[in-house]
Amino acid sequence: MECTVVRVLVIDVGGTHIKIAGSWDRATQRIPSGPTMTAADMARGVLELTRDWDYEAISLGYPGPVKDNRPFREPINIGGGWTTFDFQKAFGKPVKCINDAAMQALGSYAGGRMLFLGLGTGLGTAIVDHWRVEPLEIAHLPYRKGRSYEDYLGEAGLLRLGDERWEKHVHRVCDLLRAALLCDGIVLGGGNARKLVTLPDAATRGANENAIHGGVRLWERVAESTPPEFVDARTSAATSFVDGDGRVEPRRAADASTEETAGSASFTNDDAPQHHATTVPTEAKRSMRKSATATTVTTEAKRSMRKSATAKTVPTTRARPREPAGSADVTRAAKVGTKRAAVRRPT
Q1: What pTM does this model have?
Q2: Residues in Cβ contact with 107 at an 8 Å cutoff, skipping those fewer than 6 apart
Q3: Cβ-based neighbours of 9, under 8 Å, separated by 6 or more
Q4: Mean per-residue pLDDT, 151-174
Q5: Looking at residue 122, what is its pLDDT?
Q6: Residue boundaries of the structural domains of the chain
Q7: Is residue 71 a contact partner of residue 82, using CB atoms and an 8 Å limit?
Q8: What is the CATH number of domain 111-207?
Q9: CB burial class (10 A; 0-12, 13-18, 19+) of residue 317?
Q10: How far apart are CA 179 and CA 174, in angstroms?
Q11: For residue range 190-210, what is the model confidence (pLDDT) as tens digits?
């Protein structure tokens, strides 16, 4: 990386303290914060502490989401007034505002795709991939039993669960997020990271001073040789990292052409897109039409088939001759008379 010569004042806003340091010596100074510390209070405190300091730019680590170089929502653990405060006007210097976990992640970065978890009062999360910082808002997503990730891994979770159970959840969440976000490794920062007896797989313990390094790096100019932000699976398989610093070697043209040839040779018709379908010859089309015509039933044939089916399925019913009016009564009376005569016949 190539660095521009800028004297940077780094401000890391936390729930209990505000840490302040300069890029020229990295010595950290602290002023107390707390739930009543507003943005204006912070600015006055920093200006009072640094009134004799000589700096050209400011990096501000904010404990909350940041959008368009300013706080997007008010913080949870300290006072308000952050989203509308004009930091550049207050300090009289150019200010770069970034999420505090992202700033510490940038200071901890050494290469590859890295996940950062800040185990402090809350839970800070960020990813750094080839010097590209992506702040995350995982802390308040649901984790277990109606509670969030921060409810388990933050300070409140540590007090509720105890050291041993809290550490088990740290291991579980690290494994879960590393697999879901496809990260090469994890850096665990924040004040409670030192309380871990054992570290999760592919995890290292970061220092709080890395937030100062990250604030200085915000004003560093990344060299043009930085790798692309997104690499597909085929390119990733054909690249290799150099010196572990996140730089990748581009594929050679011969390798790329060989790979494309092999890929086209193994490309089957079943896998081919529809707009690359093979053209059917004219003779084949004619034979297909003939076979389709041979199997088509004409309209007259259909009608005759319906008639024959109706003749077979509907039985013929003969009309019963109608009896003259009163014939039923006469017949009934005759039957009754016959029965009576049979009864009276002498033996």
Answers
A1: 0.61
A2: 209, 210, 211, 212, 213, 214, 215, 216, 217
A3: 20, 21, 22, 23, 46, 50, 53, 55, 57, 58, 59, 93
A4: 96
A5: 87
A6: 111-207
A7: yes
A8: 3.30.420.40
A9: exposed
A10: 8
A11: 889 999 999 999 999 998 789
